[in-house]
Write a structure and sequence with these properties.
It holds the Pfam family HicB. The chain is an alpha+beta fold. It folds into two domains: 33 residues; 56 residues, OB fold (Dihydrolipoamide Acetyltransferase, E2P) (Beta Barrel). Helix content is 33%, strand content 24%. The chain is built from four helices and six strands, in the order ααααββββββ. A six-stranded mixed sheet has the order 1-5-6-4-3-2. The longest helix has 13 residues. The mean pLDDT is 82.
């Protein structure tokens, strides 16, 4: 019989967690994480939390397929509030509530359900 039974699993998953985890890592990795956290203007704890949240997040089809994709402004319909991506229409939000610029390109930052968050790409001079 396995050491972990359904009953053990239920006890582990049903108890409220404290939010504290004792973690042993290689000292070189710890140093690298410390440098990356400082470069991101975060504490080590905040930086590790950010990485874990990003990795553990349940990615949707839209997250996996569309985040990072460039969308021409002409595919955004500001009249009905929809944007066409790969033949499918989604609701959208534009970062900082900017108006749609039909001549610009936009990048998909996030997909939350059927709502895509877009950022206008600025042209480099």
């Amino acid at each position: 019989m396995s050491r972990w039974s359904y009953r053990n699993w239920r006890q582990l998953t049903s108890t409220k967690k404290s939010g504290n985890i004792a973690l042993r890592i290689d000292p070189e990795l710890h140093e690298k994480i410390t440098r990356l956290a400082a470069a991101d203007n975060r504490s080590v704890n905040s930086y590790i939390t950010k990485i874990l949240e990003k990795d553990v997040k349940n990615n949707s089809f839209e997250d996996r397929q569309f985040v990072g994709t460039l969308i021409p402004g002409k595919r955004i319909n500001d009249k009905n509030g929809l944007v066409e991506v790969s033949g499918i229409y989604y609701r959208y939000l534009i970062e900082d509530n900017q108006k749609v610029d039909k001549t610009a390109n936009y990048v998909i930052l996030e997909a939350n359900g059927n709502v895509l968050t877009l950022r206008k790409m600025e042209m480099a001079n």
